[in-house]
Model the fold of this input.
Amino acid sequence: MTVNDTSDERRRFTRIHFDAQTEVCYQGKQQAVQLVDISFNGMLIQSESPLPVTQGETAEVQIHLGDNLLKIPVELAHRRDDHYGFRMENLDIDSATHLHRLVELNLGDEKLFERELEHLIPNSH
Done:
């Protein structure tokens, strides 16, 4: 796992490069994909076969973390070739807790982690 903190001013969340068994579930079908990176806000995946999801449509991404399965509701934000950018939607408490821990462990910087949380929860002061 590596951390990619891009200088792009639009990006508020640090992307964490993470390799885990991942599937996209859409309209009752499941397709294996490659998780490229994940953040508090969304994820980038790569798929060898085109996904039937179009921009603005919702799906579910399932990420296997050892004995845990994260089921994350997502919306397709953009697509470029075989890369799909998904925005997370209405994350359940268990998945949010696992994602929180994953980001916290991989950032390795408490101040950066706190900044990420502030961006995630606006007006938290």
